[in-house]
Amino acid sequence: MITLTERAARHVQQYLGASGNAVGLRLGVKRTGCSGLAYVVNVADRIAANDTVFDSGGIRVVVDRDSLQYIDGTEVDYVQQGLNEAFQFRNPNAAGECGCGESFNI
Known about the structure:
The protein has helices spanning 6-17, 65-71; strands at residues 3-4, 24-32, 36-44, 51-56, 59-64, 75-81, 84-90, 96-97, 103-105. It is globular and about 35 Å long. The chain is an alpha+beta fold and 106 residues long. The strands form 2 sheets. The protein has a 6-stranded mixed sheet with strand order 4-5-2-3-9-8. A 3-stranded mixed sheet has the order 1-6-7. The longest helix has 12 residues, at 6-17. It has 2 helices and 9 strands.
């Protein structure tokens, strides 16, 4: 299961509202970064046969089957610190993260 904090759900709702054909938030991973895997966040414009869909805070969170094994159980928050703002991932599967928090390893 993937969950969004209340702050993240509010931010995503505003963002998706500006996108005309969004069906939800697509969350996944790709191989990159100094730790091996990086989070990918996009607008989901469709739901594929190999996607799993979660509802969190009124937001559909769409995850492809390959990514789910790395991020199942993750809580997504949205944080603002000064002029910086970003999603923050609390992933119970991550064994370690790079210093910037952009990538992780299992």
